[in-house]
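User: My instructor asked us to take a sequence, write out its structure as tokens, and then describe one feature of it. I'm not sure where to start. Here is the sequence I was given:
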Amino acid sequence: MATTLDKVDVLTVGVGWTGGIVAAECAKSGLKVRGLERGEARGTEDYSMVHDEFRYAIRYELFQNLSRETITFRNNRQMNALPMRMMGSFLLGEGLGGAGTHWNGQNWRFLPYDFEIKSQTEKKYGKDKIGKDFLLQDWGITYDELEPYFTKFEYTAGISGEDTNPFWGKRSKPFPTPPMKKTPILEKFEKATTNLGYHPFMMPSANLSEPYENPDGSTIAACQYCGFCERFGCEYGAKSSAEITVVPTALETGNYDIRYHSNVVEVLKKGNKVTGVRFYDTVTGEEFIQPADVVVLTSYVLNNAKLLMVSNIGEQYDPDTGRGTLGKNYCYQILPGATGFFDDEQFNTYMGAGALGMTIDDFNGDSFDHSKLDFIHGASLSLTQPGLRPIAFNPVPPDTPAWGAEFKKASVHYYTRALSIGGQGASMPYKENYMSLDSTYKDAYGVPLLRLTYNFTDQDRALHKYLSERSAEIMKEMGANTIAPANPLTDYDIVPYQTTHNTGGTVMGNDPAISVVNTWLQHWDAENLFVVGAGNFAHNSGYNPTGTVGALAYRCAEGIIKYSKTGGSLV
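Assistant: Let's start with the prediction itself. The structure tokens for your sequence are:
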């Protein structure tokens, strides 16, 4: 029998960036907040021996235990969906900080075009630009409306950057810290892209260029360029994450506590409100009911959608009829690019930081003419110097054998003689790409697994081909002897790793017919339930999602505080 705990004002399910931001803002306003985190406590002190590529990057020390909780996957509805048994295409976080602990630190604001993509695309190119089976929709909020929240997140995280990109939205304040070091590798990219008439700029980075104290009094250290960012926690406290910023801020108020090893399996609903959640202690197996005046789903994209589905809150999307909103508009990300091999030059590729890089946006959003192209949007194209580690990074020219003495020789030779340009390509929502509950497989608590139905589209393939060609042109200008554009897209596979930039499923908007939550991230069907994360994105952009997720979390927190005073719908 479940034990019922004392009610709290605000309950967050998950304690990463979104849960931490909501907790900090609500606790500062005087609300009593509790965070339920199914993983364990951790922080900078736990990462003093983190430079172990095998333990963290290959064996996934910081990630979700797939023997207890995973997803099933299929390319289309005619296939049997099978469980993901090992981490592959994306890496699901677990524990304090969530995926924000092991991110690389690239921090972007989505473009003004992104928030009004349907109306702007139709206005410029007509309604039939990419076809009726793509579920394009505006977000219900504009870049200008979201700009103050972007700024607040950047000043909390101390983002390092420079405002020299002519294609992104206007900023109300400069970056809080200067850009990172411009290394010889980045200068090479800068010269080549400038020669081609493009507009390179230093990438906005949460690996900070200098020590910084944020407005809440949290201190973030300066990056040491050790090259252990993605898949690792930062031993220096120099990569902005929830556990060194917003979580301490929330705890210092005295209005916040975290309960670890707490796996939420159901959101409890009565009438037009939720009453709390049901969860299990993953260590003792005990079952609990946690009542709350406001429940906020702040876990990862996939889990937020799953919790709504198993709790029967909202209408599940049906690809046959087009009805329902829950689970629709799932998008991934397209990764065009090119690798160059330099026979007579060597680079310090083993050094760097997760977001040490230069970027061009000349082929992102609608910054270039799509009239004669069979796709919309594009990608940011970047050359990054994240610190390439020897187990996972073995670049060799295309005609090299995949094993044996010749492979070993080429692998050693090109370890410091290969550079890559990578694109984060936008993904448009398609009627057959969606999330639902699996009818066969269950997790360790008897709850159905989330089922992902997804494949690349002709839009994706066209975007990927075009931008891989542009990447190869830049690499040629950089002087590479051998150039290998990214292989053409075929069918999506759940392996190997590609990106953890999953979006959609709990889309935001100003119309309940096409969205799960309103523009305050308040659920249309339960006024005291809020859902915040990259699941709110109506499509995926040419950037990683964290900066936009952070902005939405600050807007969500403001909405919760308003709701606690007035009740009712916020729109």
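For the description part of your assignment, you could build on this observation: The radius of gyration is 23 Å. Try explaining in your own words what that tells you about the chain.
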